[in-house]
Amino acid sequence: MKSSTIADSIRTRLGDFSSGERRVARALLASYPTAGLETVRLLAERAGVSAPTVLRFANRLGFANYPEFQRSLLEELSERDQSPLNAYSSGAAEGARESLDPEHLGRSAAATLSEAVEETLTGIPRYELEAAVGLLSDTDRRVVACGGRFSRVLAQYLVLHLMQVRGRSTVLPDSPVERADLLCDAGRRDVFVILDFRRYEEEHLRLAERVAEQEAKVVLLTDRWLSPVSGVADVVLPAQVGSLSAYDSLVPTMAVCEALVAGVIHTLGDRAEERLRRFEETSRGFGLL
């Protein structure tokens, strides 16, 4: 399983770069990966550095030259835009299909999914996970989560837990009036948790850009190719998506959600316990349990 992208390497090695190289790194991550497909001169202008600094940056990442760096980005871009149908038709899932007979299915799933979960949770930079937990543990902030065609389920899953342990958490409403009402008042005391996976949804980028302008914080849960929202997000939590089928797995991202909830409970301590107690009492009092 391929465990890292160029963006992963950049994020984990920011401290190793010179100040000029860090400017190139931030310029690239702010518009990933398209900024890296520009010429050396254009990327240098975007970052406010010299062309040789861009070349040194590519060398620091392990590429012999800039064309090699761009070829790797193009390979990522091809994977990033792949649909389940394309994956199936191209034979990308052929190896998995051979492991789907009843005799091997359970063992194959255990191996594939456990590897994806482990690579995800050990691959997320510590400071990113800490930042996400910090934002979600701030009970003065409202948490708003939204997802896509499939990942919306995980947005709901995360919110249902946060409702119990900290309150002030909701899924972005579907109703246009309710959604406009929530977004109209969004601001610096809000945290938007956006789940966006390939094929990325344009509305998520528009949402992130708009609420960021209104000074809300954005936490992104995405795949290893990175949603365009990564250029706007304050925190990026990428996950592996390896599965037995042509569909990307959301199991590793669910594990990230579980880790976030555990981190919030630990951070809030007695406050989380008291909130859970009141939540239980309220539920019983209104016959909701």
Brief description of this entry?
The chain is an alpha/beta fold and 289 residues long. The chain is built from 14 helices and five strands. It has helices at residues 6-12, 19-30, 40-47, 51-60, 66-80, 84-90, 94-97, 102-123, 126-137, 152-165, 176-184, 202-213, 251-268, 270-285, and strands at 142-146, 169-171, 190-196, 217-223, 235-239.
- Count of discrete alpha- or pi-helical segments spanning 4 or more residues: 14
Q: Write the H/E string, N to C.
A: HHHHHHHHHEHEHEHEEHH
Mean pLDDT: 89
Radius of gyration from the alpha-carbon trace, in angstroms: 21 Å
Distance between the termini: 43 Å
Percent of residues in beta strands? Answer: 5-15%
Helix content: 55-70%
Question: Mind describing the biggest β-sheet?
Answer: 5 strands, parallel
Structure summary, number of beta strands: 5
Task: Flag low-confidence runs.
Answer: none
Structural class: alpha/beta
Order of neighbouring strands in the sheet with most strands: 2-1-3-4-5
The global form is globular
Keywords:
globular; DNA-binding; 5-stranded parallel β-sheet; 289 residues; 14 helices; alpha/beta
Outline the fold blueprint:
Layout: H1 6-12, H2 19-30, H3 40-47, H4 51-60, H5 66-80, H6 84-90, H7 94-97, H8 102-123, H9 126-137, E1 142-146, H10 152-165, E2 169-171, H11 176-184, E3 190-196, H12 202-213, E4 217-223, E5 235-239, H13 251-268, H14 270-285
Parallel strand pairs: 1-2, 1-3, 3-4, 4-5
